[in-house]
Hints:
- By secondary structure, this protein is α/β, with parallel strands linked by helices.
- The protein folds into two domains: about 5-170, 3-Layer(aba) Sandwich (Rossmann fold), CATH 3.40.50; about 175-420, 2-Layer Sandwich (Dihydrodipicolinate Reductase, domain 2).
- The strands form three sheets. Strands 8, 11, 12, 13, 14, 15, 16, 17, 18 and 19 form a ten-stranded mixed beta sheet that branches.
- The longest helix has 22 residues, at about 440-460.
- It is built from 13 helices and 19 strands.
Amino acid sequence: xxxxxxISITTSLLAIGITGCGKTDNDKPxxxxxxxxxxxDPGHFHAALVQKTMYDQxxxxxxxxxxDGPDTKDHLNRIDGFNNRKDDPTSWDEKVYTGVDFLExxxxxxxxxxxxxxxxxxxxxxYIFKTVExxxxxxxxxxxxxxxxxxxxxxxxxxxxxKNNVLLYDVMTERHEITTVLQKELAHSPAVFGQLQKGSxxxxxxxxxxxxxxFKYVAGNAIKRPGWFFDVTQEGDGIxxxxxxxxxxxxxECFPExxxxxxxxxxxxxAKRWATELSQEQFTKVTQLESFPDYLSKDIxxxxxxxxxxxxxxxxxxxxHAKVSVIxxxxxxxxxxxxxxxxxxxxxxxLIIQQGKDENYKPTLYVEAIGNNDIAADLQMAITETLQExxxxxxxxxxxxxxxxxxxxxxxxxxxxxxxxxxxxxxLKYLADGKLPKxxxxxMIAKYFTTTAALKMAMEQQ
Length: 462
């Protein structure tokens, strides 16, 4: 027997049934109709963050297909929280199916045209393939794949998406973080940056490091993580999870709008992985589970859970040396949160993003001249004559000889949660256009080749 339950929050369905990305059942262009969202098996809070705001193009009625369990219920509670918040509440109307055949039911009913997939990563590649094969557009949370063995299936999914004229896209929120945006802009100002160095294994031309925390607050509430989040066979190693963002930024910043051929342009050089230790008490606090599930027994030693959430790797992309590091701690220090560090080494200066205590744990962009390069006038010109037109209010603050801080007004620091809305708006534009930029699909494939190749090397060398 299956169970159906319906949550009616506000309004009724406004429109349509688009089965692909270009035409509707009544042959109207997509731009003249509403997009209907489906959420498939939500298990990660990112699924809800797509709906933290409303969109003119998206119908308020959203169809949810998933198992009748805590993950689905937690997702619905988050949406309910958005609908009932005091400031700028949303008005989503969630229609929920929780039969054991939820995937087959979603495919057969075709209640919407865009499927949001954010949950157990072990299932994600299969979900993606079956969904695009059935003719749905897909907006997928990272990572799309977590093992080298599943990588060929992801390539097949992109082939199916092209065949069925639907758009498969992943949620790369960090492209919208303002310090990263400005780092990219300045890196392509030859008068300021010169050219990107080639680097070496010991001194990569670009380094990106991300520090995350298992216990933290999202949308004002302490996050509850599912138990499977701590099982790398379900969530994935850190080396294939958060690192997806960092590899994406390296491609996006260093080689904008250039196609990366994973077979010829990417070479893995070295990789390693290691565990974060969690006590039973810490695990219970963040999952609200009283004991470790059986599937974690393989990772428990002396009643301590070892989560292989940490990893780093160095590789060459277009003959440029790059390094990626991902670290997970249990909880951030007081006043801190997840942090990002990045350095791009040019022939004239380094562009550095830091987010430590000196920056009050806020991402801050610095420009550091190299050697005797006098870039002061060119840097000031780049800020005042180019970047201020795009981002009014930004400025420079001299720190010491040859080093500056880029002063960024608070209005541009919208925060990680808001980036989900920005990515969704971008995806809606692509849907209206009926296509992705030519470089996006090959570069998504290159990105996931890089992360899975790093995992393979780390496992072989462990």
